[in-house]
């Protein structure tokens, strides 16, 4: 990249003189054009240095002022005028307008032709462009070699920072800092009170998917130019590379060289993601066996602990399953596969930060991720709500959680796992809460697969006429029996609860004992009565 200042310091251009004193000499020069038409500004590319005799403005200084304004808005690098042929001297108004805009006006000596100057300037610029291109290709080669040798994202960031001599950090798709260059401390930004604002700007750039440069000002008035680059801009949620103090890259570094480094960085991130997916596949196989109802789970805990050591399974007295489900909005359907991978990546890397010894694992349904908590959590609901809010705030994706009950042995984990899944399925029809705890179904769950006729037969065999009473006497007798059993066969408590005399309770319990042929407090009969009362009541409902 060439600038007006660089060109004017080259010996072969020593006869080109700057006319105005307040010109911005840092303007980039990408190309050279020669033109004499009054409306030339409408046909020039940006960052052009225009060469002209200004013959169209020989007696029209106001027109030349308008041209300078139009070129500045383009923006153009400047204008070089061959004075002496048509215009011998510039009107002071022209120089005043140029100084107000910081627009460079250069004088070409009358002894030089515009074609000669154009040829020399273009040769110089092209030589610079060629050098920049070769340097960018060399950057790509060096970074590619580093990647092939297993360089991490952090090492690539450090190398890039050392080349451009600027602090760098990279944020993952969730807005969290993944790596920083050596010596850079995020506290430096926090002290300037601009980091949160910067994160908001980065989020906006991420949604646009294109490079942006912004100026941030701290409360003390200190200004900082920041350039933000999407890494893998074809992704819906790309990583974001942030270069601070990006106003002056050392020569021959250029935008092209940065882009080559970012390209390699993107491949490195992709490689890391593939490794994570491969590890996830091995996890999935392990947890599929551990949670399969039809798999013969070895009750020897130590065997499963050894088998699961590669996945950070530890010996504990508490294992609890949580299944999380993504609720991807319809507008994101096109990107659903990428979002599913991102969500697993987040739980893979971040979940353990919320609770030690937490293991995430993929499920067949890619919109769900399993979590294994291997230590008791005092406030698991509060922790999961924090995860819910973090993901929603950063990605705009809502997640819900099904929570199973803790079990004491790893080979019993499947029971907690299916409780978590069932709690999700049950809750979907109820409300929009992101947390669903498993509700114990009690003894009824043991007979879910039993035919209704078989349940009715059992209840009638045990309770006789009290199973499904159809007259007032049997209804009262059944109610007294149920209350008596609920009060642990205590007559006084039963009478008080039913608001009847103790003798009435005794009379009714005696009638029940005669009906069943055994004392009500007989252990075997008592449990059969409790089960039959519960099942017959639910079947009637």
UniProtKB/TrEMBL annotation:
Q: Where are the transmembrane segments?
A: none
Chain ranges of the PucR C-terminal helix-turn-helix domain: 477-534
| Segments forming domain Purine catabolism PurC-like | 6-125
InterPro entries (alphabetical): CdaR-like_regulators, PucR_C-HTH_dom, PucR_C-HTH_sf, PucR_dom
Q: Which Gene3D superfamilies match?
A: PucR C-terminal helix-turn-helix domain (1.10.10.2840)
Q: Which Pfam families match?
A: HTH_30, PucR
- What superkingdom does the record give? Bacteria
Question: What protein am I looking at?
Answer: PucR family transcriptional regulator ligand-binding domain-containing protein
Q: Which organism is it from?
A: Vagococcus allomyrinae
